[in-house]
Amino acid sequence: MVTEFTPIASLAGGLLIGAASVLLMAVRGRIFGATGILAGLLTPADRSDWTWRALLLAGVVTGPIVHKLLFGDMPTIQVPMSTAALIIGGVIVGVGVTYGAGCTSGHGVCGMARLSRRSIMATLTFMVTTGLTVFAVRHLFGGAI
Q: Is the model's pTM score more than 0.85?
């Protein structure tokens, strides 16, 4: 299984996530936790709460269109897993986000920037679990999941 190293695109994405996190905290006083933002969109506290969440998610979804306007082509997305593996992974992530009270953007970006011990422990758990999962899928299951 080959993976592509994209340092420039990864740096640009990280800078955009960081900027969005700072902007959301400055403007709304909110943590940029992607799953919390999505959950709040489905059950908003009020109209203004729904509006900023919808605009933020619209920005995330339209990212590939902006890429096409800037570079002339849609970004290539390669998913080296089966649909079943993606669905199982999505369910596992959903359970983890619920029990961990947040996701990598909330804990890993915002929580660690605030030096939250809980977020640091959550992020360490995410990273260790990810490493073990990648090792198991690639070396114990031969990438066949």
A: no
